[in-house]
Write a structure and sequence with these properties.
The protein is an all-alpha fold and 290 residues long. It has helices spanning 2-38, 45-66, 77-93, 99-120, 127-144, 153-172, 179-190, 198-203, 211-236, 241-247, 251-263, 269-286. Helix content is 75%, strand content 0%.
Length: 290
């Protein structure tokens, strides 16, 4: 009996394993695409956000229209607002953040948001989980301590706020009955929020758009965001919130490797130590009890 149950569990795990890996690589690719686009002023953060969300919405709407039978648009205004806040704050923060450090801060905030929600819902927090979260906080402090390689505090706070928005967006996906349609609807509902960027463009002196910046923004919108987020909504339906949070711990490592290999960012000791401490602490907090 136990062998049959184990086999069934393994089959269920394999069903979402590869989609989950695709989503995690897409999340890391977003960090790399954004950093490449904003480097050397190829595009401004507001324009990057507009192109990213608009191209993602168009891509997803075409997908649901081409399906047979056609799928009606889903999603919610809460999902659209959370997506907009995440995307804009994400772009603004990456003006002064490296790909690896930015992803580390982003998903550290995601963990805090999702576990805070679990605590609010009355889930018991064990001493081991509390110890793991304290270790993770220590890792973030190592990254944010004053020093030549420490990220600027304003950018770090923007990325942390972006992580909170993404945590909310992921939690909304737990109740998604139609992942593709709901993701398309969330992207479509994020577009009216783009008018809020008009003051940002005016204060910042207008748009700055080059061909490389546009291509990176399109890649982020269509591939890393549109496709990646639709697949992710399908994954979070099949796993617990703790499993979803745990899987995302690999994203800062993937983004850091991408930043070093593709952007030429330095592989600093501070970043290595912070990654090890944060990921180790949260892994301790989420590890199943033997």
């Amino acid at each position: 009996m136990s062998t049959g149950t184990t086999t069934l569990t393994d089959r269920k795990a394999r069903a979402w394993l590869w989609p989950a890996l695709f989503s995690l690589v897409a999340f890391a690719a977003n960090s790399v695409f954004c950093r490449l686009a904003l480097r050397d002023g190829a595009i401004d953060p507001a324009s990057f956000t507009v192109v990213r969300l608009a191209s993602g919405a168009l891509f997803l709407m075409l997908l649901i229209r081409l399906r047979k039978p056609a799928v009606p648009q889903g999603g919610s205004w809460r999902g659209g607002l959370a997506l907009f806040l995440y995307a804009f704050l994400f772009s603004a923060a990456y003006l002064q953040l490296g790909a690896g450090a930015g992803a580390l801060l982003l998903f550290g905030a995601v963990q805090i948001t999702m576990f805070g929600f679990a605590a609010y819902k009355g889930e018991r927090i064990t001493p081991r989980m509390l110890l793991g979260m304290l270790i993770a906080f220590a890792g973030l402090l190592v990254l944010l301590l004053p020093g030549a390689e420490a990220p600027p505090l304003p950018s770090a706070l923007l990325m942390a706020a972006s992580g909170v928005a993404w945590g909310v967006y992921s939690l909304l996906g737990k109740g998604s009955p139609r992942p593709l349609a709901d993701t398309a609807g969330n992207f479509a509902r994020s577009l009216p929020c783009l008018v809020l960027l008009a003051p940002v463009l005016w204060v910042g002196g207008g748009t700055q758009l080059t061909a490389p910046g546009l291509l990176y923004a399109l890649a982020s919108g269509v591939l890393a965001s549109g496709a990646g987020y639709a697949v992710w909504y399908g994954v979070v339906r099949q796993v617990s919130a703790q499993q979803a949070a745990t899987m995302q711990l690999s994203v800062p490592v993937i983004a850091a490797v991408g930043g070093v290999c593709l952007i030429g960012e330095p592989l600093s000791i501070r970043l290595l130590v912070a990654c090890a401490v944060v990921l180790g602490g949260i892994a301790l907090a989420l590890a199943p009890r033997r």
